[in-house]
Amino acid sequence: xxxxxxxxxxxxxxxxxxxxxxxxxxxxxxxxxxxxxxxxxxxxxxxxxxxxxxxxxxxxxxxxxxxxxxxxxxxxxxxxxxxxxxxxxxxxxxxxxxxxxxxxxxxxxxxxxxxxxxxxxxxxxxxxxxxxxxxxxxxxxxxxxxxxxxxxxxxxxxxxxxxxxxxxxxxxxxxxxxxxxxxxxxxxxxxxxxxxxxxxxxxxxxxxxxxxxxxxxxxxxxxxxxxxxxxxxxxxxxxxxxxxxxxxxxxxxxxxxxxxxxxxxxxxxxxxxxxxxxxxxxxxxxxxxxxxxxxxxxxxxxxxxxxxxxxxxxxxxxxxxxxxxxxxxxxxxxxxxxxxxxxxxxxxxxxxxxxxxxxxxxxxxxxx
Length: 368
Ligand code: SAM
Known about the structure:
By secondary structure, the chain is of the alpha/beta class. Helices cover 47% and strands 12% of the residues. The protein has 16 helices and 11 strands. It has helices at residues 6-10, 17-24, 29-46, 85-97, 113-129, 145-153, 168-173, 183-196, 213-225, 243-250, 256-277, 286-291, 295-301, 314-317, 333-346, 360-367; strands at 50-60, 102-107, 135-139, 158-160, 199-202, 205-206, 230-231, 234-235, 281-284, 306-307, 350-351. The protein has an 8-stranded parallel beta barrel, surrounded by 6 helices. Strands 6-8 form a two-stranded parallel ribbon. The structure holds S-adenosylmethionine. S-adenosylmethionine binds at residues 65, 69-70, 106, 108-109, 139, 141, 161-162, 164, 205, 236-237, 239, 287, 322-323.
């Protein structure tokens, strides 16, 4: 039991697990408002009101993993696609011409030679069309040290690999029980990425079946212990035809109330990460908007500073559905830009066009 009140905790400079659980469990509107205000204040103090765009290119949905929650898992019967390098060229040229500072390359997971070679070419193409100007974040899953090194040498400089949950038992309950789906391997990958010199991002899904705020507090402490530079996390969203769907339905996770709870918990996670970790980059993810039309604006208000507008060519979007009701499926990159720009301005933030917007935490830890 924590005898402190919310204001006392928010003014501390260090936070115990008990403090974090207390903040995650806040229930009065007034207290939650204090939490979000403090997080926005910390954002202004350690970063600024500038939000950065990472144009999201979802280039393939082939996947060797069978994660029990994901709409493009290996066993899922979706139409598979792999874009061409020409497509990558078109999307990154669009991002460059529209003054985006960076793009994020994401896809289902593969480790075969063809995939690695395709990714090599994609990174080179993005650098080529932008005269090296576009920053590159990769989100291509678990790879060998040498592959991570190769992509870094080609000048991809950020890598996002969500840990999904740091709780071993919960991890096992949402993944097949085999060596391809190992929490320890994921942790080792994060260590390799850091050693190579990437800005390293991780994150979790929030509101998973049987996940507690105690577990989420451990996740935040893990981010701190690993000295993480970037956070990309969002609510768990049900995906039909996945093994976790029935379980989630039986726990009532599809109700309006449950969705509201997961949205709020995700916003609290953003705010607490901002307050505890201070100078890291934090994304307001698309998944937040899937549960709440104003989710991404609320994310910025709760301390996030990164947005990942989808720039995937429209013809591929419907086949890259990680979860149900994914927003922006019928949109074009132009539409996403206009829509997100007005969302950023509506909360009093501005867009850092033509800037990489690297994690200040990364810069500081490299000066030490
Ligand atoms: N396979 C790569 C990896 O593991 O990093 C990259 C692609 S994976 C599809 C990207 C992220 O999608 C995962 O880290 C996971 O957190 C998220 N995701 C997948 N299914 C989801 C769901 N049903 N709800 C919320 N997020 C989901």
